[in-house]
């Protein structure tokens, strides 16, 4: 049976790239399991691995295939070989888990990102800022999906808190128990469009997808009642085609989200606008006269918590692309001005202790 790749989100750009590649077939990555992948081509689904040459020439982990990627492959009876990943139209990436400053692609070629957060103890405005910073940078459109509305007794207060950070973003409130809000979720996943689900463990991503699929295809687990921590239901990334024609990518829950790339200008558009009104172009928004940001904090139109979150993410983003030594130097520069000044502070501290 021949598969129509349009049903998997194929557009004119990727179709043209597939036609010009001689001897190679066009495929979309539907699952990722460490170094093994599952792909779909016009001939159906099969496992795949990357070519040796591809692995040798690409040292950056973000260059390797990810769920949602379109790739050029050779087909065989047992396993396909991926030779090239086509240029991505959007890419959602985070910092890889561990000490090494490396990126990890969560999903590629998505049109919309559902940032899922439950309306219980998981609700966290500062974490939402992180997700939005990552999402805006991806070139896809973020949508905030607030789940478990039936467990929330202070919805107006939570929506008011979220309004400070959700500028320009649709917010959907839904409940698996009552079915409220699911019509709005469905409307965001039209035929041919790809939507990636991200969020912490246990917030209801798999439950949402099962409802969209019209059947249970993903395991679901709830947030534990004793500590409000989520348990992983999804353990790998996968792409699914809905009966309505939309395409969804399910991703494992992220308890900690370290930014690899991000768009602070979009997430903190209010602060970016205020910064243009400061007296000095290089204003640090700390103690300079005529600082519009500090004036907004003093007047109450900008909260201290939001500004501190902006500063924290700004420092984190400044480390992007630096190795361990460079990151440590950047930290020293931020704290002490330079390594020599740090040594001077240390000497002064030792001298003070010796006098005691």
UniProtKB/TrEMBL annotation:
Record-annotated residues binding Zn(2+)?
278, 283, 285, 291
Cofactor binding: number and manner: Binds 1 zinc ion per subunit.
Please state the span of the N-terminal signal peptide per the UniProt entry.
none
Domain spans labelled EngC GTPase: 108-255
Coiled coil region boundaries: none
The CP-type G domain covers 100-257
* Compartmental location: Cytoplasm
- Keyword list, A-Z: Cytoplasm, GTP-binding, Hydrolase, Metal-binding, Nucleotide-binding, Ribosome biogenesis, RNA-binding, rRNA-binding, Zinc
Question: What cofactor does this protein call for?
Answer: Zn(2+)
| Record-listed E.C. numbers | 3.6.1.-
- The residues listed in the UniProt record as binding GTP, with positions renumbered to this chain, are 147-150, 199-207
Which top-level group of life is the source organism from? Answer: Bacteria
Q: How does it assemble?
A: Monomer. Associates with 30S ribosomal subunit, binds 16S rRNA.
Q: Which family does it belong to?
A: Belongs to the TRAFAC class YlqF/YawG GTPase family. RsgA subfamily.
Q: What task does this protein carry out? A: One of several proteins that assist in the late maturation steps of the functional core of the 30S ribosomal subunit. Helps release RbfA from mature subunits. May play a role in the assembly of ribosomal proteins into the subunit. Circularly permuted GTPase that catalyzes slow GTP hydrolysis, GTPase activity is stimulated by the 30S ribosomal subunit.
Identification of the protein by name: Small ribosomal subunit biogenesis GTPase RsgA
Write the lineage as a comma-separated list.
Bacteria, Bacillati, Bacillota, Bacilli, Lactobacillales
Gene from which the chain derives: rsgA
